[in-house]
Design brief:
The chain has about 300 residues and is an alpha/beta fold. About 25% of the residues lie in helices and about 30% in strands. α4 (about 155-165) links the parallel β8 and β9.
Length: about 300
């Protein structure tokens, strides 16, 4: 099979088209013929060597989101899905196990039916970012009627966080650049404030006691803490967990913890079908243009997901 990967970390041009053996399917696993793989910031971290890859076998295949067709079910594997179904899946990359490949083998619990009427390209944007947002909200555990702040709201994960928070009955205050304010309001944010320096102060102007919790998709870290009430929690996505003031807690999450939460992934599928979450595609590129996709993502300003076609 063809895959896109690296032998050693480097610039986007380190990404190459590789020929790899077809992965074997064991009990509890399924094989997917990949038609689309979303490109995420975590992929660029892997490619550039900003993650510890010293113990991983080479070559390294990035990617955590796929959509395609279920091709094989492993022996003794229980799944409601059938060969030929259009599916989406989250992939936890390690070595040659990554989403940028014509075929992937993943645990059956990592796969759900693709949203009805969604293209493979659209469906590939949902699993990893949708599950990250779901994990963030579940970790906060805020009751309906609470107020949540979301930074990086125009991004893929931040956008899902806004929409899922609204579906959970929360009031959402979100950040946005001027050019993205209409987008973020359209995702359902109740209050949209200017992003960047001073965001926490602007939140306090609207909510003097502070919001009940925050999802920090923009990685403001300590700068977002003043927006949160005493003893509140800020969810972080890159491991930040420094002590906060006023009892504010920084709680890092790892989406791999939800990689086998099949029911939650299937609920995201249903919410996409119901119009509660939006499948946003910035552009679709052939797999050979993976270096260009990484360059575009690292340049910033991408709204929705860049997707590689296989």
């Amino acid at each position: 099979m063809r895959a896109i990967g690296i032998h050693e970390p480097g610039t986007p041009d380190a990404l190459q088209v590789l020929d790899l053996p077809q992965p074997a399917v064991a009990e509890g696993e399924v094989r997917i013929r990949v038609h689309a793989a979303a490109v995420n910031p975590t992929d660029t971290l892997l490619r550039s060597g900003q993650r510890d890859l010293s113990r991983q076998p080479r070559p390294l295949i990035p990617g955590m989101d796929v959509a395609g067709v279920l091709e094989e079910v492993g022996p003794g594997t229980e799944t409601p899905l059938r060969v030929g179904d259009a599916v989406m899946a989250i992939v936890v990359p390690r070595g040659t196990q990554g989403a940028y490949a014509e075929q992937v083998v993943v645990p059956a619990e990592s796969v759900a039916a693709a949203p009805r009427d969604a293209s493979h390209t659209e469906a590939s944007t949902l699993p990893m970012n949708g599950l990250t947002a779901r994990l963030a909200l579940d970790t906060l555990g805020l009751p309906s009627g609470s107020v949540i702040a979301v930074t990086g709201a125009a991004g893929a994960m931040g956008g899902y966080a806004v929409q899922l928070a609204k579906a959970d009955g929360l009031t959402v205050v979100a950040d946005a650049a001027t050019k993205d304010q209409e987008l973020v309001a359209g995702l359902g944010a109740d209050v949209v404030l200017a992003r960047g320096e001073g965001f926490a102060d602007r939140v306090r102007e609207r909510f003097p006691d502070g919001v009940d919790g925050a999802i920090d998709g923009a990685m403001l870290h300590a700068a977002v803490a003043p927006a949160v009430r005493d003893d509140g929690t800020v969810i972080t996505i890159r491991g930040y967990d420094e002590p906060g003031e006023r009892g504010v807690k920084f709680q890092p999450i790892l989406v791999a913890d939800y990689a086998r939460e099949q029911q939650k992934l299937d609920t995201l599928r249903q919410q996409a079908e119901d119009g509660l979450v939006s499948l946003r595609v910035a552009a679709s590129l052939p797999k050979e243009q993976a270096p260009e996709a990484h360059r575009r993502l690292e340049a910033g300003g991408v709204r929705g997901r860049l997707v590689l076609s296989f």
